[in-house]
Design goal:
The protein is an alpha+beta fold. The protein has a single domain, classed as Winged helix-like DNA-binding domain superfamily/Winged helix DNA-binding domain (Arc Repressor Mutant, subunit A), CATH 1.10.10. About 50% of the residues lie in helices and about 15% in strands. The chain is built from four helices and three strands, in the order αβααββα. It has a three-stranded antiparallel sheet. A hairpin with a 2-residue loop joins strand 2 and strand 3. Helix 1 crosses helix 4 and helix 2 packs across helix 3. The radius of gyration is 17 Å and the shape is globular.
Length: about 120
């Protein structure tokens, strides 16, 4: 029986993609990221801290993010920002997502998804 190729990270990669995109131009802390995702997607995508914090910790562990503790209005928070490795990871994830979205849109429109020579 032939091995079937699947997309096991289809939805698992979405939080990572969105977090990296948000942090690309400004540092943010965890709850701020949760709120930004909700607001910028008009609440179509809502992740709780239980999703965002493991993503942040994993990305930091992998070297895609760096963190620093900062006190604002008397509250100590951990702010995250993207590293050069994180920018490369964001570019790769964005390309993968764009390819996937194009293929899905093609299927929804009743057409065939044709690969273009790169």
């Amino acid at each position: 029986m032939a091995t079937r190729e699947t997309n096991p990270n289809f939805m698992n990669g979405v939080p990572e993609l969105l977090v990296l995109r948000l942090l690309q131009h400004e540092e943010m802390y965890g709850y701020e990221i949760v709120q930004a995702i909700r607001e910028r997607t008009d609440a179509v995508i809502v992740f709780g801290e239980g999703v965002v914090y493991p993503v942040l910790h994993g990305l930091e562990h992998d070297g895609a993010l760096r963190s620093r503790r900062k006190t604002v209005n008397g509250r100590s928070r951990i702010y995250y920002s993207v590293t050069a490795a994180g920018s490369r990871r964001l570019a790769a994830l964005s390309q993968t997502w764009n390819n996937l979205a194009t293929a899905i849109q093609s299927m929804l429109m009743g057409g065939h998804h044709a690969k273009t020579a790169s």
